[in-house]
Amino acid sequence: MRNILISGGSVAGLTLAFWLRRHGFAVTVVERSPALRDGGYKIDIRGAALDVVARMGLLDEVRRHGTDMRIARFVDARGRQLGTMDARLFGGREGDDVEIMRGDLAGLLYAAAGDDVEYVFDDSVTALHETPEGVRVTFASGPPRTFDLVVGADGLHSNVRALAFGEESRFVHDLGHHISIFTVPNHLHLDRTEMMHPAPGRSAGMYSTGGGDDAKAMFLFSSPPLAHDRRDVAGQKKLLADAFSGQGWEVPRLLDAMEDTPDFYLDSISQVRMDRWSSGRVALVGDAAYAASPASGQGTSLALVGAYVLAGCLAEAAGDHAAGFAAYEREMRHFAEENQKLAANNLKGMVLKSATRIRFQMLMLRLMPHLPGRNRVIERITGPIRRAATAITIRDYRAPASR
Question: Could you give all domains of the chain from N- to C-terminal order, each with its CATH number?
Answer without folding.
Answer: 3-68+101-172+272-345 (3.50.50.60)
